[in-house]
Amino acid sequence: MNRSNVDFPPETSSAGSKQPVVFASRGNVVELNVPKEKPAQRTNSIDVHVGGRLRMKRLSCGLSEQALAAAAGVSVAHLHRLETGALRIDARLFADLARILHTPPSYFFKKWPREIELPSG
């Protein structure tokens, strides 16, 4: 396909929502489906509790944020957001962190504050 025959859509800003990309080529309209971004996760008091326990365990093991982040394959900033509860820990990463810290996953749910209500279901 010759580039001169294609009308390219304007660039979308990184802050803008991603819409299907549509362009015309010799009178034909072609639509490419662009995957939508995941909706922002909302964290709650459970995430803050689990993140705090993660930080406590990391410190008790004598590990720096840099060391644990490198072992888990995430950035230091990502680990910091997990530890503060600003970001929810996904299941795969949760299992990896528990393994790296030689800790059963149940450790992160101990000393549950009374004010945290578990979701009913």
Descriptive account of the structure:
The chain is α+β, with helices and mostly antiparallel strands and 121 residues long. It has 2 domains: 3-32, no CATH class; 45-109, 434 Repressor (Amino-terminal Domain) (Orthogonal Bundle), CATH 1.10.260. The chain is 36% helix and 10% strand. The chain contains 4 helices and 3 strands, in the order βββαααα. A hairpin with a 2-residue loop joins strand 2 and strand 3 (28-32). Residues 11-17 have low confidence and may be disordered.
Layout of secondary structure:
Elements lengths: L5 E2 L13 E5 L2 E5 L12 H16 L4 H8 L3 H9 L6 H10 L21
Antiparallel strand pairs: 1-2, 2-3
Short description:
The chain is an alpha+beta fold. The chain is built from 4 helices and 3 strands. The protein is 36% helix and 10% strand.
Quaternary status: single chain
Segments where pLDDT lies below 50 for 5+ residues? 11-17
Enumerate how many helices there are, as a single number: 4
CATH architecture descriptor of the largest domain: Orthogonal Bundle
The gyration radius over C-alpha positions equals 22 Å
- Helical content, roughly? 25-40%
State the total count of DSSP E strands.
3
CATH superfamily of the largest domain: lambda repressor-like DNA-binding domains
Structural class: alpha+beta
Distance between the termini: 54 Å
What is the CATH level 1 assignment of the largest domain? Mainly Alpha
Order of strands side by side in the largest beta sheet? 1-2-3
Mean of the pLDDT scores?
A: 78
Please report which band the strand proportion falls in: under 5%, 5-15%, 15-25%, 25-35%, 35-45% or over 45%: 5-15%
- Provide the succession of SSEs: EEEHHHH
Structural domain count: 2
